[in-house]
Each structure stands twice: as structure tokens, then as C-alpha cells.
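Deliverable D4.2, example record:
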Amino acid sequence: MEINFKEYQGLSARTINQHFGRDQQLANFGMGLTGEAGEIVEILKKHLFHRHGLNAEKLKDELGDLLWYISAICNVLGFDMGQIASDNVKKLKKRYPEGFGFEESINRDG
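Output generated by the structure prediction step:
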């Protein structure tokens, strides 16, 4: 079953811990986001440098956890994940109109 960002954001919101205030939620979710990113890096490090096979299922699981934290932060702040995705695509098209290029990367602003 595939869902879009709007559906995901709504469905994942039900698991946000409501016992904390806004700032505590943001701190918790920001820390969780970096923790999950670290777990992703660990999977990739083991694959690339320790000769472990790539555990694609574990990687997908951790990417899902990372997505949950992104969604949680968006929910707390009232951001729409679909709009964030759309804005990001616009930024990337402006930055790399013909696709990624080293020259464009070196000479880009921001």
C-alpha cells in the first residue's frame, strides 16, 4: 500500500507523545531524528567499510523511523510535508536545471 505525505503525516501523528509541550516535543523529535540518521550511517558504514552485506530491510526500517521524526516535527510546527517536498523539488530544479553537475555544485549559492 502506497500513501502520500498528507496521508502519512495524518496517520503518523496519532503516535506523537502528547504528554510534552511543544518545545519538549521539538527537542525529543530533533534528537530522535539525529539518532535515526546515525543508525542509517552505521548500516552504510558496516556495508562500505566492514564488508558486511547491505541490510536493505534494516535500512528501509531506519529510513521509516527517520521519516516519522520528520513528520512529527512538521506536525508540531504545522508544516505540510507535501509542500516541503514540492518546495525542495523547486529548489533542486533551480540549483541543477539539467541535473546534478560538479560545476553547478561548486558555483551554487546556499
